[in-house]
Amino acid sequence: MTTKLALSSILCTTILGSAAYAADITVPSGDEIQKYVDQAQPGDTILVEPGVYKQSVYIDKPNITIRGLRDGDNWAVMDGELIRNDGIITSGHSSTIDGFFVKAYKGNGIMTQGANNFTISNNYVEGAFYGIFPQYGINGLITGNTVSGAEDAGVYVGMSDNVDVFENIAFGNVMGLEFENTRNGLMANNHVYGNSAGITLTLIPGLPVKDANNLVIRDNLIEDNNIENFAPASSIASQVPRGIGIGIVGPDKTTIENNEIKNNGTAGILVADQTLFGMSTDPKNDPYSDEAIIMANTFSGNGEDMTGILGDLIKQAGASGLDVVALGKGRGSCLANPDEVASLGTDRWETCDPSLSAAEMKTAMIPGGAEEPVYTAEQKGRLTYLAVCTGCHTYDSVLHGPSMQSIQALYKDNADGMIEYISEPVRKREDFPEMPPQAYLGEENLNAIADYILNELGG
Amino acid sequence: MSRSPRHLKGTLLSTALTCLISLPAFAQTGSVLSDLENPEFLAKKRAEAAEFIKCDPIDGFDARMAAYEAGATAKWDRASMGCAVQAGSQALDEMSLPTNLIWAFVTFRVDNIEKHLEVLGANLEYFDVLANSYADHYEGIEKSSELYVRWQDTRAQSEAILAKIDPIIPKVTEARILRAAYNLASTVKETPPEEANAAMKSAIEDLEIAIAEKPEALDGLSQLMLGQVLVALPPFLGGDALRGIELLEQANELNPNDLTVHRALVEAYMGEREDEKAIALLQAALEVDPALENGQDYVDDTKHLGGLALRLDQGDMATQFNDKRNERLASNPELLTRKAIASFGHGEENPFTGKDSSDLN
Amino acid sequence: MRTKILALTLLGGIAFPAVSDAWQLSDSCPASHQKLADGTCELVTLYDFYASPDQHGGVQAELPELLSGRFTPQQIDLGRILFFDPILSAEKDMSCASCHQPERGLSDGRKRSLGATTGAARTELPRSTPSLWNVGFQPRFMWDGRAETLEEQALLPLFSEVEMGNTKEGVETALLDNPAYVQLFDDAFEAPPSVERVGTALAAFQASLVSFNSRYDRYAHGDASALSPQEVLGMNAFRGFVGRCSQCHIPPLFTDSELSVVGAPENDLGHADLGAGALNTDEPALLGAFKVPTLRNITRTAPYFHSGQFETLDEVVDFYNNDRGHMAPEGQDLKIHWHVHMTKGPQLSKEDMVNIVAFLSALEDETLMPTVPEKLPSGLTPVPGL
Question: Interface pTM (ipTM) of the complex?
Answer without folding.
Answer: 0.80
